[in-house]
Amino acid sequence: MDQIAKPSPGFQRNPGKVITVEPYIGTVTVRAGDALIALSTRAKVLTESPYPSVFYIPFEDINFDQLRKTDLSTHCPYKGDASYWSVLRAAEAGKEAMWAYEQPFDEMIEICDHGAFYPNKVTIEATPD
After folding, report:
1. Which pTM does this prediction carry?
2. How many CB atoms lie within 10 A of CB 120?
3. What domains does the chain contain, in order, with CATH numbers?
4. Which of 28, 63, 91, 107 could form a disulfide with 43 if both were Cys (CB 3.0 to 4.6 A apart)?
5. pLDDT tens series, the chain, 129 aa
């Protein structure tokens, strides 16, 4: 099964593009006010120049009771289609604060079933081990 089933059109057009996904060695905590949204020792760090690095947290470590999925969807030619969730406790400030690639392109499969948060909408604390 060496054939890629869902290749990224972005990487096909721009094979020199570099996006790295590495494990974060430490704990990542996401809060909205005093509400704990996520707590993980299994987060990944995605680095894509020229953007700031982003933590991707496994769905199992995210409290989805604190979130509501929205209708918003965006497309990245490298990662795929992103879905969005709003943080209920954060009201308007938490609108579409989390995104995830539920069916990413093959090259970005490492972030499947992981969510990322906008740091201007929630508080993200990373504590290295």
Report:
1. 0.94
2. 8
3. 9-128 (2.170.150.40)
4. 28
5. 455 688 999 999 999 999 999 999 999 999 999 999 999 999 999 999 999 999 999 999 999 999 999 999 999 999 999 999 999 988 888 999 999 999 999 999 999 999 999 999 999 999 999
Can you tell me the distance from the alpha carbon of 109 to that of 118, in angstroms, rounded to the nearest whole number? 21
3-state secondary structure of 67: strand
**What are the backbone angles phi and psi of residue 10, rounded to the nearest 5°?**
-65, -45
Q: What does the chain come to in residues?
A: 129
Q: CA 117, CA 71: separation in Å to the nearest integer?
A: 17
Cα three-residue angle 99-103-52, rounded to 5 degrees = 40
d(CA 94, CA 121): 5
